Amino acid sequence: MRFTRRAAIAVVGVAALLTASACGSSDDGGDGGSGSKKVEVFTWWADGGEKAGLDGLVAQFGKDCAGQEFVNGAVAGGAGANAKQVLASRLQQKDPPDTFQAHAGAELGDYINAGQVEDLSADYDTWGLKTAFPQGLIQNLTVDGKIYSVPANIHRANVVWTNKKVVADAGITSDPTDLASFIADLDKVKAKGIAAPLAIGKDWTQLMLFESVLITDLGADKFTGLWNGKTDWNSAEVTKGINDFKTLLTYTNKDRDALDWTDAEKLVMDGKAAYQLMGDWEAADLDAKKFADYAWFTFPGNGTTFQWLADSFVLPTGAKNAEGTKCWLKTVGSADGQKAFNTKKGSIPARTDAVPADYPKYQQAAMADWKSATQVPSCAHGSACTQGWQGAANSALGAFSSNQDVAGLQKALAAAASQFVKK
Amino acid sequence: MRRLRHWGPGLLLLSPSLILLAVFVYGLIAWTTKVSLSDEHNARGSKGFVGIDNYKNLFTNDIQDRFTHSLKNLLIFTLVFLVGAMLLGLLWAFLLERGVRGEGFFRTVYLFPMAVSFIASGVVWRWLMNPLKGDGAGGLNAVFGSLHLDFLQSTWWTNPDWGMASMAMPAVWQLSGYVMALFLAGFRGIPQELREAAAMDGASTYRLYRNVIFPQLTPVALSALIILGHMSMKMFDLIMSVSGPQWLTEVPAIYVWQTLLTSDYAKSAAISIVLLLLVAVVIVPYLIYTNRAEKNT
After folding, report:
1. How many other C-beta atoms lie within 10 A of the C-beta of residue A315?
2. Which residue ranges of chain A lie beneath pLDDT 70?
3. Which of residues 18-47 of A touch B (CB under 8 A)?
4. Cα separation of A30 and A301, whole Å?
5. Are residues A168 and A275 in the same domain?
6. Domain assignment present for B161
7. Which residue spans traverse the membrane (chain A) (predicted)?
8. Mind listing the pLDDT tens digit for each residue in A2-58?
9. Cβ-based contacts of B16 with chain A (< 8 Å)
10. What is the domain range of residue A300?
């Protein structure tokens, strides 16, 4: 190839420029310098109800923490997947934001073990959170006697949503209270010509259903034990749970692996299914979609068990403005802060002293349950297991969806537990 | 000194790209290899060197043989994709080469899908390959249903055994036009004299193609195979938008992403290296071959 000299110089020049600019762009970023009054809050709440909730929280923060300035460090997209990657690299480079969003519970484990987040137990006492939050939640949050995060909200995972008309058409008048009566109801709906009365989606929604069945078959304590190593995954009770889950799958839509939870929700809205197990963000979503003809009940056999998941905030080690971060965390945990956030996001406050009248109908019921119920964590949403465990469980459920191999699923879940528990 | 004068300016010209390559390609490959030999299985960082344990675990000790399952998926996908795209591309190129009216028009039509990104076409194919049959069917199944061709309805990519073959359909649809363009260029590059000589020798059309034209197309076919092959090995975006990340359709590239999201850096690095080796198995012999071919000319 022939090059003129001028072209060659141009090429070298451009290359040099590129190198120079690549080197020059690494020194900015979100640091406000030491002694700053800025609080960078890192979340993946960039739109919808989540953004509205965050805005409410920020307004409250402005009132409570005069002199501190909120800096929005939100990274949008991928339901938090993008944000988690950005966060991981910032933590590795010892450039943490002043506070970041994380699912409360086991998902925090990696950060705790890496010494990337600070103990907040003393602040819990100062802020009075140990009495404001229910005991079950405090127990679930405590790791080796310490608490590392302040939950901003609570969602419930073990709720079955129904299409009232479809259920009534099948002649069902009361909510089922155990698995046998639930299956009897499913048969009734099926007899009315609805082939798949229980709507479900891909792997993680199947994991949610499976966890609910396990709560029924094992009870709250043993279920929690599955995730901390106290309950054996190879036990006969788990086998029974898998078999019950397999039975329930026969009532679900065959295209489940192709659907997300909103697609399954649409089956219920369209009357093509009667039931769907989903977290209680479904209430806000159904309201937003102007579908009023819905009802809900706790998954049959779960009794008063409340399977929770929560978004929480932490104090990272080496935060530049720890004082400001603590003020943010105090706002997050305060009654006013929780109200400002949750009334907009469609979740319920973690505090038990909130005023129900401020919230919509479903949330009022959930708040009443939250006070009295037994709290258990959820693996599908990170409060019971680390992300690695969650990935393995989702994959195992995805395989079970097509091969229906009971022993295989139990073996895979037991292997996942031995690999990930307490690590 | 004189020798420096000879190759110095050339080296100077090349050095920016050499440095960039060294750092951002080979440096990062070395780094990934290092991570893959460590036990950095979470955000806590590495505690030490574990040799090839991560690789051994992938093949022998992965829960539910997840990795070998993803390799099996990739194999089915690659076979169907390569065979499908090559045959269709060759067929179209052959038809156009035989001389049809409006060649330019057809060429554009066939080539056009390549301009669409896998993400965009994946969203459409996700809908086309709706797995429900019968009453609730959508997409292709609905079309078959309304044509009373119900036996053609399929569960598409949700079939646990052959789902990956359906997953290759969108890829075939997108890349066949590209293969056609390559083959067409190949056909056009064959000197007219050869055809005339064959005609003079009294060769039939079949003999002409079998013994004169197709042998000349071997380098083109090889290039097309390599290009499609390495695309297929790294397939990620299409599958992500058709099925999302899940067991049924998991291939190594998606598995890397999944393990990376769960902060299992060592495992995802190990899968990346296996994937790199797989691609290298395809690419390196080709590079050697072309290198030799260039030297010979």
Report:
1. 23
2. 1-35, 77-79, 422-423
3. 18-19
4. 49
5. yes
6. no
7. none
8. 445 665 555 555 555 554 444 444 333 344 444 678 899 999 888 777 888 899 899
9. 12, 15-16, 18-19
10. 156-308+379-420
Judge whether A65 and A324 are in contact, CB under 8 Å: yes
CB A187 within 8 A of CB A246: no
Domain-ending residue, one of A355, A374, A393:
A374
CATH assignment of the domain containing B95:
1.10.3720.10
**Alpha-carbon span A300 to A179, nearest angstrom:** 6
Q: Could you tell me if A423 and A386 are in contact, meaning their C-beta atoms sit under 8 angstroms apart?
A: yes
B51 min Cα distance to partner chain A (Å): 19
Of B283, B77, B83, the closest CA to residue B176 belongs to B83
Concatenating the DSSP letter of every residue in A108-166 gives GHHHHHTT-B---HHHHHHTTHHHHS-HHHHHHH-BTTB--EEE--BEE--EEEEEHHH
> Domain holding A286: CATH number?
3.40.190.10
A185 with A79, same domain: the answer is no
Looking at the fold, whether A174 and A236 belong to one and the same domain comes out as yes
State whether residue A356 is helix, strand or coil: helix
Whether residue B253 contacts residue B235, with contact meaning beta carbons closer than 8 Å, is answered with yes
The DSSP bridge pattern shows strands A305-309 and A99-103 to be unpaired
Does B53 map to a domain? no
Q: Does B41 reside within a domain?
A: no
User: What are the structure tokens assigned to A320, written together?
Assistant: 């530049």
pLDDT number for residue B195: 87
Of the partner residues A19, A257, A386, the one whose CB lies closest to the CB of residue B246? A257
The whole-angstrom separation of Cα A314 and Cα A336 is 19
**Does residue A26 fall inside a structural domain?**
no
Which of B:85-144 have CB within 8 Å of A? 126, 130-132, 136
Number of structural domains (chain B) is 1
* SS3 (DSSP) at A1: coil
Cβ contacts of A335 within 8 Å, gap of 6 or more: A132, A349, A351, A353, A354
Q: For residues B54 and A19, what is the distance between their CA atoms, to the nearest angstrom?
A: 35
Count of structural domains, chain A: 2
Q: Burial code of A87-115, b = ≥16 C-beta within 10 A, e = fewer?
A: bbebbeeeebbbbbbbbbbbbbbbbbebe
Chain A residues close to B261, C-beta within 8 Å: 81, 84-85, 387, 391
A242 and A390: one domain? yes
Structural domain contains residue A9: no
B155 part of a folded domain: no
Residue A29 lies inside a defined structural domain of this protein: no
CA A39 to each of CA A28, A317, A375: distance values in angstroms, whole numbers, following the listed order:
17, 14, 32
In angstroms, the Cα distances linking B185 to A61, A158, A233, B207, B216 are 66, 61, 61, 21, 12
| pLDDT, mean of residues B44-62 | 85
Closest by Cα among A143, A316, A116 to B44: A116
Mean pLDDT, chain A, as a whole number? Answer: 86
What's the rounded Cα separation, in Å, for the pair A155 and A348? 7
